Amino acid sequence: MRGTHHNEGMSTPRQRYRDQVRSEIKQIALVQIGEGGAAALSLNAVAKQLGVTGPAIYKYFRSRDDLLTELILEGFDEVAAAVRAAVSEGAPRERLHALARAFHGWAVANPHLFQLLAGTPSPGYEAPPESVMRARNVLGPFLPVFAGGHCRPGTEPLREQMRRWVEETPAVAEWVRAFAPEGDPATALAGTVMAWAQLQGVVSLEVQGQFAGMGHSGATLLAAVMDALADSIGL
Amino acid sequence: MRGTHHNEGMSTPRQRYRDQVRSEIKQIALVQIGEGGAAALSLNAVAKQLGVTGPAIYKYFRSRDDLLTELILEGFDEVAAAVRAAVSEGAPRERLHALARAFHGWAVANPHLFQLLAGTPSPGYEAPPESVMRARNVLGPFLPVFAGGHCRPGTEPLREQMRRWVEETPAVAEWVRAFAPEGDPATALAGTVMAWAQLQGVVSLEVQGQFAGMGHSGATLLAAVMDALADSIGL
DNA sequence: ATACTCTGGTTATAGCTTCTAACCAACGGA
DNA sequence: TCCGTTGGTTAGAAGCTATAACCAGAGTAT
Predict the structure, then answer these.
(1) Domains parsed from chain B with CATH numbers
(2) DSSP labels for A131-195?
(3) Do A200 and B196 touch (CB under 8 A)?
(4) B163 exposed, middle or buried (CB, 10 Å; 0-12, 13-18, 19+)?
(5) What is the pTM of this model?
(6) Which chain B residues are Cβ-neighbours of A149 within 8 angstroms?
(7) Span A13-52, pLDDT tens digits
(8) Closest nucleotide to A55: CA versus each C1'
């Protein structure tokens, strides 16, 4: 406690070196995950490829799960950025298709990383509370698309449930207000949650190779379900 | 080669004992998977709980992946049976909802087993060709529901793609004919694939606990997306 | 009944994993 | 110049899958 904590939070040479090695580790880990999925991530292999011995990694990450969660959080940011870059003007239906295409495009470009975010990677892996925040950033741009819609009868019960949810959970209300300040929050939530499920379904099946053989139906299937969704919210 | 292979394929006492132990192993493995997911399956732990030492398991299953694939195939049969038990008479829209509820119900009752079928369990796990057959048995009952529908414009491209798929792949044509001998195969396939993706999405999110906090919205969400699907196929 | 074979169990071991403990050199700040 | 913190090392514990070698006994054929 004598030669420490000057430069509170600033970039001492040590700190800069540390950050650089940490990002190198994450980069190598991402390559490994990209080749064999999350289960194929081996800290020993990362260390070897980085030119150090195994236990050295633990000076930078407390555990394998810590490394994974950090990658997951960054992954959420990445896909959120991809979706945000696809917000556009024009008819809500077209904007919805653009957002969906952006999500889908990112996922098929980084299939294993998508599975890392979407699936349950480790045995007893617990998603940190932060991850739901990041996930909300991903879905956020969908909210204003639906905020001006009118639910068809079939989706009315869902809208009712969303209404209750947003009433009971202030964090959700604030989230909706941040992305869709105007329009009906419950309708926006109903459409967004439906879009969420549909994206999850289509993309999950595609990245698992379930559409092998039937052309590149991922995109057309996605367009079809998104169109059905747009109809059911009355866009 | 002297005291063997009489009773070709019949149940000698040895064979019966073997089958019984195999099914005990699978049962214990299912419990472990039900508690911690596929990654938590340890052959050593299975052996210990069965009262034998580790390597004894390998007399019954060639590898951990072998055991997993066998469980997966049986799982497909189970969910297929659950869906098949929900086929009903009446309006197509109601039949669709009944099938979807059956699938959903089975999945939330066996969440880890569902993830075993839906996700990619092991690092380099390769789904055996047999599994697509079984998966088709699961989706089969959905085919006749849509066979009499008429695609809305938004799903027309998907129907066109399905038409090409069924033309180029005899196995698919036969599969459709077996479950929906009448009606348009392309329309049946389009609706079924859409239903598949929607089920996968809703159920995946639910079994991962993503709907925690917002009531039991799995069922209502499922009803909403299925209703949207029924609209888009014109049921 | 007796002799043989095949099978289901054992122990030992290799090689992999995550992760902890103890130690040491060297970098950077005072 | 001195000294503490840090980043690296080796050693090792506990666990995993999987293979090899071996052995007793159950079941079968003569």
Answers:
(1) 11-61 (1.10.10.60), 75-233 (1.10.357.10)
(2) HHHHHHHHHGGGHHHHHT----GGGHHHHHHHHHHHHH-HHHHHHHHHH--SS-HHHHHHHHHHH
(3) no
(4) middle
(5) 0.94
(6) none
(7) 899 999 999 999 999 999 999 998 999 999 999 999 999 9
(8) C19
